[in-house]
Write a sequence for this structure.
C-alpha cells in the first residue's frame, strides 16, 4: 500500500491513477474503493490497483488521505512510490502520518504511542492492551482528570481574584482526594503496562549443575541450552525470549557462579554478574536433591538486594535441601522439576508477582517510562496540594501545585509536551505509520 496525505494528496493521486470509471479520483465520492491502474510520468502502466480516499478532517491524519493498494512485491511498490514522488509528493518521515494525526487533533499522544506498541507487540496480551489504549480508553481518563484539575483550579483562582464576591471553594480537600485516588488507580497497573510494552529480563543464576539450563529449556518448551551431568557446561550467557503470563520475557541462562576453574569460566562468571545487574528479576535455582552448599550461599550473597524468586529444582527426587540462603529469605520459594515440568505454572506466577505484572489484571493505561513519570509527577503535585492545605499554606501557593499537576498530565495527552519530545517519539516509528 502507498499512502498519500496532505492538501495536495488528491492532486498527486489524479496524476498517477487511471481509473476504470474514466474519471479522476477527486471527482468521485470518498470512502469508496475504485479499480484502475497506476502510471508513471511517461504514461506507462505499472500495476493494477485499488484506490480510495478520505476527506479531511475525517481521516486518520485529519487531512485529505489517499491509499493505493497494489500487488505485493518490493519492485512494484518502489515503482509506484517513484511515480507518486515524481507527481509532486515527498517521502514521509518515520511516523509522520501518526504525528500529523496528533498535530491535527485526531488522536492524543497516548493513542499515538499505542500505535507503535500495537505494531511491536510480542504477545496477544500486549497487543490487546495496546489496542485498548489506541481506542482511547486511557485518553478519556486522562482528559477527565485534566477537567477535574481545571475545575478545582478555576474555583480556587476565582475566589483569589474576587474574594468578596465569590465564596471560598467548597469541599476542596474531598475533591483533591478523589483526584489523588484516580491517579493511584491510573498508576496501579503502570509497571505491568511497561512490561507488556518493553518486556522484562530475568537472569537465571545458581551454582554449577543446579539445573539452570534444564529449567530454561522447560520454561521455553524446547531444548535451547546444552544440558549434561558435567558441572559448568554453560560457559556463557544464553538468552531467549518467551511469553510468560502474557509478558514478553528475556530469559538469560548464566554461567554458574563459584570459584572459577579456568580463565574461560572466570569470563563467563563476569558476564553473569553483568546480566544480574541489568535484570528486572533473578531466578535463583537450587538443587533440592542435595544439601545447601557454601557455593549456594555465595550465589545468594551475589544476588542480595535484587528482586527474584527461589526455584528449588529436581522436586521429582527426594528433598535433601534444608533452608535457603539467608540473603534471599524474603523471596518467594517455589518447588519445581525441570524434568517433569511440575511446578512451572507456580513459578511463572511467582515471577510475574515479583515483576509487578500479575496475570489476569485489568488493561493497563500507561505503557512506558515517559508516561509513568508524567503521571507520577502529576500525582506528587496533587499530594503536595493536599499536604499544603492541611498545613494552612496560602491559597496562591496551593494553586501553583495544581498548575504543576496540569502541566505534568498535559505531557501524557501531548497538550503541554514540546515538539522536540513529540519528534523524538515518532523517530521510533517506521515509514508509512
Amino acid at each position: 500500500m502507498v499512502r498519500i496525505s496532505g492538501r495536495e494528496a488528491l492532486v498527486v493521486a489524479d496524476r498517477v491513477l487511471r481509473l476504470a470509471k474514466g474519471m479522476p479520483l477527486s471527482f468521485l465520492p470518498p470512502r469508496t474503493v475504485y479499480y484502475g491502474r497506476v502510471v508513471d510520468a511517461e504514461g506507462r502502466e505499472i500495476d493494477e490497483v485499488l484506490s480510495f480516499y478520505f476527506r479531511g478532517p475525517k481521516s486518520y491524519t485529519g487531512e485529505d488521505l489517499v491509499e493505493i493498494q497494489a500487488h505485493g512485491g518490493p519492485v512494484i511498490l518502489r515503482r509506484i512510490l517513484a511515480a507518486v514522488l515524481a507527481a509532486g509528493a515527498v517521502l514521509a518521515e518515520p511516523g509522520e502520518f501518526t504525528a500529523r494525526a496528533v498535530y491535527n487533533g485526531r488522536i492524543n499522544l497516548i493513542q499515538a504511542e499505542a500505535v507503535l506498541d500495537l505494531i511491536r507487540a510480542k504477545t496477544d496480551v500486549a497487543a490487546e492492551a495496546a489496542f485498548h489504549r489506541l481506542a482511547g480508553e486511557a485518553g478519556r481518563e486522562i482528559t477527565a482528570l485534566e477537567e477535574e484539575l481545571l475545575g478545582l483550579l478555576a474555583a480556587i483562582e476565582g475566589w483569589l481574584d474576587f474574594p468578596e464576591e465569590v465564596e471560598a471553594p467548597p469541599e476542596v480537600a474531598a475533591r483533591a482526594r478523589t483526584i489523588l485516588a484516580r491517579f493511584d488507580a491510573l498508576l496501579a497497573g503502570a509497571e505491568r503496562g511497561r512490561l507488556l510494552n518493553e518486556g522484562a529480563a530475568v537472569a537465571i543464576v545458581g551454582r554449577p549443575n543446579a539445573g539452570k539450563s534444564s529449567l530454561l529449556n522447560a520454561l521455553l518448551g524446547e531444548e535451547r541450552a546444552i544440558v549434561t551431568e558435567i558441572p559448568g557446561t554453560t560457559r556463557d550467557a544464553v538468552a531467549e525470549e518467551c511469553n510468560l503470563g502474557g509478558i514478553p520475557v528475556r530469559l538469560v541462562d548464566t554461567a554458574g557462579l563459584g570459584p572459577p576453574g579456568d580463565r574461560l569460566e572466570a569470563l563467563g562468571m563476569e558476564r553473569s554478574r553483568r546480566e544480574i545487574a541489568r535484570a528486572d528479576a533473578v531466578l535463583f535455582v537450587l538443587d533440592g536433591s542435595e544439601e545447601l552448599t557454601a557455593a549456594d550461599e555465595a550465589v545468594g550473597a551475589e544476588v542480595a538486594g535484587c528482586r527474584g524468586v527461589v526455584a528449588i529444582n529436581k522436586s521429582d527426587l527426594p528433598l535433601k535441601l534444608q533452608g535457603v540462603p539467608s540473603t534471599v529469605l524474603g523471596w518467594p520459594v517455589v518447588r519445581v522439576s525441570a524434568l517433569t515440568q511440575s511446578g512451572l505454572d507456580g513459578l511463572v506466577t511467582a515471577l510475574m508477582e515479583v515483576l509487578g505484572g500479575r496475570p489476569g489484571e485489568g488493561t493497563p493505561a500507561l505503557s512506558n517510562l515517559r508516561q509513568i513519570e508524567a503521571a507520577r509527577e502529576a500525582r506528587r503535585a496533587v499530594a503536595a496540594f493536599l499536604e499544603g492545605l492541611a498545613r494552612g499554606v496560602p491559597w496562591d501557593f496551593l494553586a501553583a501545585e495544581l498548575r504543576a499537576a496540569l502541566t505534568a498530565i498535559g505531557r501524557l495527552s501531548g497538550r503541554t509536551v514540546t515538539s522536540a519530545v513529540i519528534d523524538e517519539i515518532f523517530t521510533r516509528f517506521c515509514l508509512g505509520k
User: Anything to note?
Assistant: The longest strand covers residues 45-54.
